[in-house]
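re: ur msg from earlier - yeah i can do the N-oxalylglycine complex, just paste it... oh wait u already did. ok heres what im feeding in:
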Amino acid sequence: MVVEPATEQFGAYVRDTHLANLSEVEFRQVLVWWYKYSVLVFPAQNLSRDEQLAFTRRFGRLERGLKRSRGAGAGFISNIDSQGNLLPESDIGRQFNIGNSVWHTDSSYKRVAAMASILSAKVVPSSGGHTEWADMRQGYDALSKSMKNWLHDKVAVHSYRFSHAWHRGLDILSDEELDDLPPVEHPIVKTHPHSMRKVLFVGRHSSHIVGEEFRSSRKLLRELTFDAAQPPRTCSHKWQEGDVAIWDNRCVLHRARAHPPNEGRSMVRTTVAGDDPTNEWAV
Ligand code: OGA
Ligand code: MN
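and the outut:
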């Protein structure tokens, strides 16, 4: 097993290993690299759904999904059906996935945001379709001193209804499921529990800042996200079938990049719930 950093400060490839048969010693090494690089890509794993779930569980408890009927498990991020046929552009699942193209951290609209997300590529387009990540520790560090001072005690409201309304996120859930997702509050500056580094916790689910003017604070959150997610604080991966990636939602943002819309792209997503004593979103 060898690690190959993707940028100076975050993101790495882990080669010569097979995640389905990772020994405990190897897993502890993977954990160390995950803490260090925050995004790890494991090429050519070809995990089954059960193998991906088992690997995910090694990091913590699975996160419960949004639909009451489905519980926790592996979700598809896909524009094709089970036979491999392209879904129409009007398909609600396809519309829903458009939201992933905007910088975000998974489940920050939940009171307990996700710890880690794992994606594996099943079908990849001939070009594009990268996943891109942005390091929010460096994003915080790059802020001016006065902005750091101003933000240090600010709290943002994150809201599913706000961030998902424009791509049919309200149509995909029942009224009860939407009621499970009231607006929640997260500090804008968080401290990562392992590195103890300060992190800018923003992204598309953040709506406005508590106690500040609604429109201007919404605009500020957009600007903070945009400015932080710039090179050299970003890295991206061009997927090959079978690749697996894991990232730490507590300190990186991510987004999906465009690809030719007439080509299939199908990914399997599993999620590690945030580490929280209430286990509100854990299974
Ligand atoms: C996700 C996500 C990005 C992608 O799975 O949460 O945002 O590239 N995916 O598919
Ligand atoms: Mn996501």
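cool cool. The pocket of manganese (II) ion (ligand 2) is lined by residues 100, 104, 106, 254 (CB under 6 Å). ping me if u need the other ligands too
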